[in-house]
Design a protein that fits this description.
335 residues; Zygotic_Embryogenesis-Asso; F-box_Sdz-33; alpha/beta; 15-stranded mixed β-sheet; Sdz-33 F-box domain-containing protein; 9 helices; 3 domains; elongated
């Protein structure tokens, strides 16, 4: 019994000592140490690191970024391009670059950013993602960014690999998107839309079904559009906040949208922001926007503001602005 207690005590003291050593290490070193063994990973998990967010960036050379309270750690996976095929989750990275305190104005390979280059530890990209995302069990941390065309996405395998996500970003090419990329972007959105809180879509295809995205029960929807964006999805929005960046100001669509809001539509919406930038500096005809709204002027400090109320007596403010080649409309609903 004495020997047994002594062995248990020694193991506990050894673990306590290991934890104290880990607590004194930098975050990037702790993450690297977690790859040593299953026991090392368990020790790192027990630290409950103060991670603010984890972003998984699925692109040609995938990246996983850890944001801490006062620190930043990034792991970049260099994939094999010798076969001239896009990478997949089942591929082994050539190596893994670990960077800390990443400075946005420095290149990724700048020695002031890079800390160490690791081997792939015998793990596929999928196993790396699962390993790093197991460091914390906080399901509110994770977000993913998908660069359509940069990787081969097996949607079912992707869903089984990634943790529960709070936010997704989908980037399409700014050029005319091919049919395969359109289908890929739609499949990604379909796979994750029901579980996320925030969605950001960049340069989506012209025929991308935005109405299905807008109808989702989201906290935030952001759209960076190519030209000729179809604004019909506005009329079925079911989000709390929506931001749209485009090259056109849809005055008639917005007028119709505000009239429907007055009648009780879009009850969840608290903020709508539309910003457009055009080559020609033409001042929008704000009278088209305000026609038939029975709005009250609330101009302040040179900014044009208008107040409208819906059928439930809820008050909202429309703020319009034009500066050079850009124009914006901000719609804010009072609490």
């Amino acid at each position: 019994m004495t020997t047994q207690v002594s062995n248990q005590t020694q193991r506990r003291l050894a673990n306590d000592l290991s934890l104290n050593v880990l607590r004194a290490m930098k975050y990037h070193a702790i993450i690297v140490y977690s790859c040593v063994s299953k026991k090392a990973l368990a020790l790192v998990q027990s630290l409950h690191l103060p991670i603010k967010s984890v972003q998984i960036i699925m692109k040609e050379d995938p990246v996983i970024e850890f944001e801490f309270r006062n620190d930043f750690v990034s792991l970049e996976f260099e994939m094999d391009r010798n076969n001239e095929q896009v990478a997949s989750l089942n591929d082994h990275p050539v190596n893994v670059k670990v960077l800390k305190d990443k400075l946005s104005y420095l290149a990724n390979d700048d020695p002031r950013n890079q800390v160490v280059t690791m081997s792939n530890q015998g793990m596929t990209l999928r196993e790396w993602i699962q390993h790093l995302c197991s460091i914390s069990n906080n399901v509110k941390l994770y977000e993913a960014e998908f660069r359509v065309g940069g990787m081969e996405f097996d949607i079912q395998l992707l869903r089984n690999t990634l943790p529960k996500l709070r936010k997704i970003h989908i980037y399409c090419t700014q050029d005319e998107t091919g049919q395969n990329e359109i289908i890929c972007a739609q499949n990604l959105m379909r796979a994750f839309l029901s579980n996320v809180q925030d969605v950001q879509l960049y340069f989506g295809p012209l025929h991308f079904p935005l109405e299905h995205v807008g109808m989702a029960n989201l906290n935030y929807l952001q759209i960076h559009s190519r030209s000729n964006l179809n604004y019909d999805f506005l009329f079925t929005l079911n989000v709390e906040s929506c931001s749209i960046h485009s090259d056109q100001m849809p005055l008639r669509d917005l007028n119709r949208f505000f009239k429907l809001w007055i009648k009780g539509s879009n009850p969840r919406l608290m903020k709508l922001f539309i910003w457009c930038d055009t080559v020609v500096p033409i001042v929008p005809d704000w009278n088209v926007l305000l026609k038939g709204l029975r709005s009250e002027d609330a101009e302040a400090e040179g900014i044009k503001k208008y107040i409208i109320r819906n059928c439930r007596g809820i008050r909202a403010q429309i703020e319009v602005e034009h500066l050079g080649t850009s124009a914006s409309v901000i719609f804010l609903v009072s609490n």
